[in-house]
């Protein structure tokens, strides 16, 4: 089994790409979804967030007010660091559990959608491939402003809280450019999927070649033993 890391910048289109991969039957683990689960009331991370950020970041029902917490952490790097140090270990534990589940179910590769994959450098070494969902910076900004109802300054602060896309581009093994329409992105995802499947055939071919070499070696050994004795 191998792992494929999928990342991007904020609002560059990771979820849009993941929707197509899921349609194609791929196993995908979404770090943003897990990040929402691990901060539900009664979880350890929830208590720690309230301890450090105060009850003013809670909604009336006790859940985290994500908008309020976002406004704080995207404009204060040290508070963002603190939130990351609370949530990231919990997110990674849950991701590991889900990887094991897919392994047991017999999936041959799992795609991990991790927004901060390239920022959290030690994670990339577990990935056979890394996919960057890219879109040009003006498009990224306008999609983010529109989707989250943010001002230009607010959207820029969120983009600036991550490694620049051009840096991530250099680190990724594959790039999907989502600057165009959804159809163009879909075609690129289909190509990526075909490559992942080909790479599986390649792995099986290597395993088969290994088995043949081992078999031949065994045969030569038996023949030698027979003729020598
Ligand atoms: C700050 C929070 C409350 C904002 O919640 P909200 O529902 O508005 O956004 P959502 O969770 O859907 O995230 C949207 C995008 O914001 C970006 N983002 C989220 N957290 C961070 C962060 N700590 N640093 C940089 N970018 C981030 C990612 O690109 C992500 O895809 C939330 O993102 C959060 O709890 N973040 C900390 C956990 C984290 O690092 N999540 C990212 C996945 S590992
Ligand atoms: N090719 C496209 N054409 C037009 N709009 C798009 C396209 N791709 C994505 N969008 C829109 O841009 C916004 C961001 O896309 P999406 O939610 O897929 O990004 P994301 O990277 O998953 O975001 P996040 O960083 O919040 O996780 C959404 O409102 C989505 O509908």
Automatic annotation (TrEMBL):
Database matches in InterPro entries: Depp_CoAkinase, P-loop_NTPase
Keyword annotations from UniProtKB, A to Z: ATP-binding, Membrane, Nucleotide-binding, Transmembrane, Transmembrane helix
Top-level taxonomic group: Eukaryota
Any one GO cellular component localisation term in the record: cytoplasm
Swiss-Prot/TrEMBL GO biological process terms: coenzyme A biosynthetic process
GO molecular function annotation: ATP binding; dephospho-CoA kinase activity
Transmembrane segment boundaries: 203-224
Gene3D superfamilies the UniProt entry points to: P-loop containing nucleotide triphosphate hydrolases
Keyword Ribonucleoprotein appears in the UniProt entry: no
Pfam families named in the record: CoaE (PF01121)
HAMAP family to which the protein is assigned, alphabetical: Dephospho_CoA_kinase (MF_00376)
Family under the similarity heading: Belongs to the CoaE family.
Name used for this protein in its record: Dephospho-CoA kinase domain-containing protein
């Amino acid at each position: 089994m191998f792992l494929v890391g999928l990342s991007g910048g904020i609002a560059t289109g990771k979820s849009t790409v993941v929707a197509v991969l899921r349609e194609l039957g791929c196993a995908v683990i979404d770090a943003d979804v897990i990040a929402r689960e691990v901060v539900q009331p009664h979880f350890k991370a929830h208590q720690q967030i309230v301890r450090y950020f105060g009850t003013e970041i809670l909604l009336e029902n006790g859940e985290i007010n994500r908008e309020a917490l976002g406004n704080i952490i995207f404009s204060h790097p040290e508070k963002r660091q603190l939130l990351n140090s609370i949530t990231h270990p919990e997110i990674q534990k849950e991701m590991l559990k889900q990887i094991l589940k897919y392994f047991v179910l017999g999936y041959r590769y799992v795609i991990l959608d991790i927004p901060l994959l390239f920022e959290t450098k030690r994670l990339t070494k577990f990935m056979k491939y890394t996919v960057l969902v890219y879109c040009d910076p003006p498009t990224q900004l306008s999609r983010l402003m529109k989707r989250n109802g943010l001002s230009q300054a607010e959207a820029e602060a969120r983009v600036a809280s991550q490694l620049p896309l051009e840096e991530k581009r250099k680190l990724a093994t594959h790039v999907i450019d989502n600057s165009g329409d959804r159809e163009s992105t879909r075609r690129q995802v289909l190509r990526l999927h075909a490559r992942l499947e080909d790479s599986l055939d390649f792995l099986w071919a290597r395993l088969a070649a290994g088995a043949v070499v081992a078999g031949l070696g065994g045969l030569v050994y038996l023949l030698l033993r027979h003729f020598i004795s």
